[in-house]
Write a structure and sequence with these properties.
The chain has a three-stranded antiparallel β-sheet with strand order 1-2-3, covered by helices on one side. Helix content is 48%, strand content 31%. Helix 1 runs antiparallel to helix 2. The protein is built from two helices and three strands, in the order αβββα. The chain is elongated. It is α+β, with helices and mostly antiparallel strands. The two termini are 22 Å apart. A hairpin with a 2-residue loop joins strand 2 and strand 3. The chain has one domain.
């Protein structure tokens, strides 16, 4: 496959990403002890974190929103991976053409 086709494929994959959110999503669990001494795990509780204006911003996310937000976060990270691939291919293409 030539460089132009690879670049088209990457752009096509980028266009298929329909939601993005910067940051990360994490599931947290808490442990509690009942009166009888039994340990019980509570959760998951979802936390969304991102950098905004130089600060780490955190927000608790209801379970019913967590899956959609996680998909958006994954979409953003996938887009960045594809962008890196696009740049690498374009740099290689430029080198081979003798323009760099």
């Amino acid at each position: 496959m030539n460089y132009q086709e690879k670049r088209k494929q990457i752009l096509k994959q980028m266009a298929q990403i329909d939601s993005m959110a910067k940051g990360s999503m994490n599931a947290e669990y808490r442990e509690t002890i009942k009166k009888n001494g039994e340990k019980v795990q509570l959760g998951p509780y979802y936390k969304y974190q991102r950098w905004e204006n130089g600060r780490n911003v955190t927000r608790r996310v209801p379970a019913e929103e967590a899956e959609q937000l996680k998909k958006a976060v994954d979409g953003y990270h996938r887009f960045l991976e594809l962008a890196d691939e696009f740049v690498a291919i374009t740099v290689e293409m430029t080198k081979e053409s003798g323009k760099a």
